[in-house]
Amino acid sequence: MEDPAFIRPDRSTARRRSCLLIVAICCATLGLTDATARRMQEKCSTAAKPVLARVHPRESLPAPVAVRTPAMRETPRVVHAPKPPLRIQHPEYTRQVRRTVHLYQPIIQKVARRYEIHPALVKAIIMAESGYDPRAVSHRGAQGLMQLMPKTATMLGVSDSFNPEHNITAGVRYFRQLVDSFDGDPALALAAYNAGPGNVRRHQGIPPYQATRRYVKKVLAYYDCYRQVSQGQSNAEDA
Questions:
Q1: Cβ of 35: how many Cβ atoms within 10 Å?
Q2: Fold classified for 91-238
Q3: CA 30, 35, 40, 41 torsion: positive or negative?
Q4: Is 74 a catalytic residue?
Q5: Type and span of the H or E element at 108
Q6: Catalytic residue among 2, 59, 129, 237
Q7: Maximum CA pair distance of the chain?
Q8: Are 230 and 88 in contact (CB under 8 A)?
Q9: Nearest 5°: phi and psi at 90?
Q10: Mean pLDDT by 10 residues, the chain (239 residues)
Q11: What predicted TM-score, i.e. pTM, was given to this entire model?
C-alpha cells in the first residue's frame, strides 16, 4: 500500500512545462519573434492536454436491476379434491354418506386439521377403501379403515393397523406426503394411494388401469357428497 503522504506529480502538467521550457530555449537560440514563440507554446499546450472519452448526449446509464429476494414460503392450504366431472346422484351413495358421516368424527377432524386435508376428502377415502370397517382386510393384505399395507404401516410407525386412530392418522399422513410429492395435485395423490407413486410417475399421470381410474372417480364422488351433506347439516344447525 502506498504512503498517503506521498503525492504523485501530475505527469501531463510536467510534460507541458518541459515542452514550454524547450520552446523558450529554442526561440531564444534561433532568435524567433515573440508572436512565433507564442504560437508554438499554444500548440504545445494543446497537444499536452489529456484526451477525454466523449459520451453521446442520448446515451444513459443502464437502469439499476432490481434484486428480488426469494419469496417466503406460503403457509400450506387445506387440500380440497377437485369436483368430479359428473356428479353421481345415485341414492346408494347418499345413503352410505348419511349413515357414516358422523363415524370417527373427532379423530378425522383432528387428523385432517393437523395435515391440512379437507375432512370430507378423508371420509371419502375411508369409504372407498374399507366402507368404514375397521377390521377390513383386502385380498392383497391391506388392513384397517384406510387399508394400509403392512410395509407402509411399518414405515409410518404403526404397530396396530386395526386401531382406528392409528390407522386414520397414518393414512392421512401418507396421503399428505403423496400430495406434496405430486405438487399438490389431489387426483394424482389418490391415484398414487391406489396404484403406487411409482406407477403414477412412470405414466406421468393417472395410470391407465381401470381399477385406479374407477377408484379416483369414486373418491371424488364420495368427497362431493360428504361435503354437501356436511354443509347441509351445518346450515340446518345454524338455522
A1: 8
A2: Lysozyme (1.10.530)
A3: positive
A4: no
A5: helix 105-115
A6: 129
A7: 126
A8: no
A9: -65, 130
A10: 44 57 59 58 51 41 39 51 54 88 97 97 97 96 97 94 97 97 96 96 96 95 92 66
A11: 0.64
